[in-house]
Design the sequence.
């Protein structure tokens, strides 16, 4: 008798089971309309605040909603200062710049992220350096980073350098994937030991918490996105958030054309950007922020529904937060077990055919042509996640009683 017959036969998931379980989690019958991955949800003061901009003429880059939005975003991120900008990518670029990242630096970041993360570093002339991810958090693996830096790092007067390339490490960029916090405590310890600043890519994690601390407050500075698909939206927009008053002032200056304040003269003291968020968008954002706590609660209930709908199905489960985190569950994730990996594309096809939008995770950054040659550690964890993960419909009102 061979070993194989002694063990439990491992079952593969059927695509039809996945379709049925998603429908049950989001509470729709078979004749449902197309269900997108994530749509914006407006049920607060959006109309009133936007109309106020039109009524008063304050639609552009100056206006009271901008300052209000900046302060409220900072409050929701657990820090003192916020700077509103045109999008999350610009926020990340400037966040990196204000901690000193520049030409020829290397920026440590996960290979499993949205392309904006390495792009933001590239705009500054820096080089992304890819780090592996932990399948239990979907985020940067602090233990692997620690061992890796011990191996390839070399201390110098300007800070830790990559001894293979001679380039300085300018920042570590953890990204809280789909709203799940990176295991920050060990990561903060690694960053502190080597004196490398942490810039959080908190684009997906507004409202998420790690060990009682809000995502966005865990590094020196963080970038948030308010794109149309994120948990709340300003149409398009982003913010830089930080507790550091000087960094915030520098970020504000850089993103508002580096104009020196004066009653009439146009003086600019460095190459700045016009990255200002218009008042119209900030107004939308103020209304959306008022609803953030309720959105997080409702998305957490939807996640529970996914988790229980998939408990009964072998070969696949819905991703669950770690005990140290309190996720905003921006996008829910199905995770295939090893025997079901070959079913991934059949599941993507069956669900999309059934009017349920599903997507694999991002192609790993070092598989994109422009980042194929970038330095990287080995990426078993990220590859594992890439093979297993499927995003499923996650908009705020899904799974709720329509009455
Ligand atoms: C959305 C997103 C960004 C960029 O935000 P935009 O507002 O779309 O520019 C950056 N990083 C991650 C991980 C994101 O998901």
Sequence:
């Amino acid at each position: 008798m061979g070993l194989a017959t002694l063990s439990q036969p491992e079952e593969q998931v059927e695509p039809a089971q996945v379709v049925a379980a998603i429908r049950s989690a989001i509470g729709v019958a078979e004749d449902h309309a197309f269900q997108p991955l994530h749509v914006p949800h407006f049920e607060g003061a959006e109309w009133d605040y936007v109309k106020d901009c039109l009524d008063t003429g304050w639609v552009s880059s100056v206006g009271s909603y901008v300052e209000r939005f900046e302060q409220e975003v900072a409050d929701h991120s657990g820090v003192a200062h916020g700077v509103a900008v045109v999008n999350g990518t610009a926020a990340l670029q400037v966040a990196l710049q204000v901690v000193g990242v520049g030409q020829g630096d290397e920026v440590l970041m996960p290979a499993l992220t949205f392309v904006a993360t390495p792009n933001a570093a590239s705009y500054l002339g820096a080089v992304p350096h890819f780090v592996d991810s932990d399948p239990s958090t979907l985020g940067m693996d602090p233990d692997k980073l620690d061992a890796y830096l011990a191996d390839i790092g070399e201390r110098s007067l300007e800070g830790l350098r990559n001894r293979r390339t001679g380039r300085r490490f300018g920042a570590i960029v953890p990204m809280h994937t789909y709203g799940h916090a990176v295991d920050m405590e060990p990561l903060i310890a690694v960053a502190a030991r080597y004196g490398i600043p942490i810039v959080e890519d908190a684009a997906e994690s507004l409202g998420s918490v790690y060990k009682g601390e809000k995502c966005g407050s865990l590094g020196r500075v963080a970038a948030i996105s308010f794109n149309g698909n994120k948990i709340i939206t300003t149409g398009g927009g982003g913010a830089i958030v930080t507790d550091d008053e000087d960094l915030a002032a520098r970020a504000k200056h850089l993103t508002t054309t580096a104009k020196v304040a004066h009653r009439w003269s146009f003086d600019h003291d460095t190459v700045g950007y016009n990255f200002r968020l218009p008042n119209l968008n900030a107004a939308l954002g103020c209304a959306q922020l008022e609803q953030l706590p309720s959105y997080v609660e409702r998305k957490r209930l939807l996640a529970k529904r996914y988790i229980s709908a998939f408990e009964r199905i072998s070969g696949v489960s819905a991703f669950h937060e770690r005990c140290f985190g309190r996720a905003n569950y921006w996008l829910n994730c199905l995770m295939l077990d090893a025997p079901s990996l070959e079913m991934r594309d059949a599941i993507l096809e069956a669900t999309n055919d059934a009017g349920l939008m599903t997507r694999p995770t991002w192609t790993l950054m070092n598989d994109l042509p422009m980042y194929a040659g970038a330095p990287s550690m080995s990426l078993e964890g990220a590859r594992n996640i890439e093979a297993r993960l499927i995003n499923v419909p996650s908009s705020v009102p899904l799974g709720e009683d329509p009455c």
About this structure: The domain at 3-41+292-399 is CATH 3.90.1150.10 (Aspartate Aminotransferase, domain 1). Residues 178 and 331 are 5 Å apart (CA to CA). The mean pLDDT is 96. The longest helix spans residues 279-311.
